[in-house]
Amino acid sequence: MKQRKILVIHGPNLNMLGKREPEIYGTTTLEDINKGLSEKAIKLGCSVDTFQSNHEGDIVEKIQDTKGKYDSIIINPAAYTHTSVAIRDALLLLDIPVIEIHLSNIYKREPFRHKSMLADVVSGQISGFGANSYFLALDAISELISKPSQD
Ligand code: DQA
Predict the structure, then answer these.
(1) Spatial separation of the C-alpha atoms in residues 52 and 60, rounded to whole Å
(2) Where are the domains of the chain?
(3) 3-19, pLDDT tens digit by residue?
């Protein structure tokens, strides 16, 4: 079987992980997360590319560009979770599984974070497990894409 390719997209301010509000987001850096994802992917028999941007349009273009190149996406849209119709619309162009993740539990935080513009267009959401949210998503996605579609 062809090796499965997963794209992990990190939204705005996630390049500051480690320094950014560590009491909420922890002390693990984005570099550590990306390294951990690549290592875990090898064990799961898939490969991971990572992308971070602070710009909504760049994220939209990256999603558009995945067509035919990736088997699934893990996305932490960060603040764009709560605002971006553009990222939602870009995901609707795809026919691959997408998992939305958050380090913090967005439902335990300020009311404006309780609404995700993506939640109803993704395969599933993982929220509140710190950096581990990414690794749980990788487990979930690798299981999803190794099985024939159930839909
Ligand atoms: C976040 C939660 C968002 O509300 C916030 O704007 C972020 C990070 C998380 O991973 O917990 O930047 O997506």
Answers:
(1) 12
(2) 4-111+123-146
(3) 899 999 999 999 999 99
104 CA closest ligand 1 atom index: 11
**Structure tokens of 148?**
């024939």
User: Catalytic pick from 10, 70, 80, 102?
Assistant: 102
DSSP state of 71: S
Instruction: List Cα–Cα distances, 129 to 57, 61, 105, 106, 116, in angstroms.
Output: 28, 28, 7, 11, 17
| Model confidence band, residue 2 (pLDDT cutoffs 50, 70, 90) | confident
4 CB under 6 A from ligand 1?
Answer: no
How far, in whole angstroms, is CA 134 from its chain's centroid? Answer: 7
Architecture label for domain 4-111+123-146: 3-Layer(aba) Sandwich (3.40)
